[in-house]
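Hi R.,

Quick one: here's the CopG family transcriptional regulator sequence you asked about.
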Amino acid sequence: MSSEHAALERDERESITLPSGLVSRIEARLPRSDFDSADEYVAFVMREVLTSVEAETETDDYEGAAQEEVEARLESLGYLE
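And here's the predicted structure, written out as tokens:
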């Protein structure tokens, strides 16, 4: 496990419900990744997506168009249907 993955393990946790088909797709990718669990994989992907979206946003306001950008990005990655 990389140091970044270890840092994710130390963070306080919350639960989010995902569609079972999406979880199956994530779990199918695990053998071809450095992640030990779907939780680690999703946490990493979400941090990457949010970092990218935040970098593209010029203001601190994530309402309106920025929210739509986040949703579109998550849908394109298969996290929203």
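Helices lie at 3-10, 20-29, 38-56, 65-76.

Cheers,
M.
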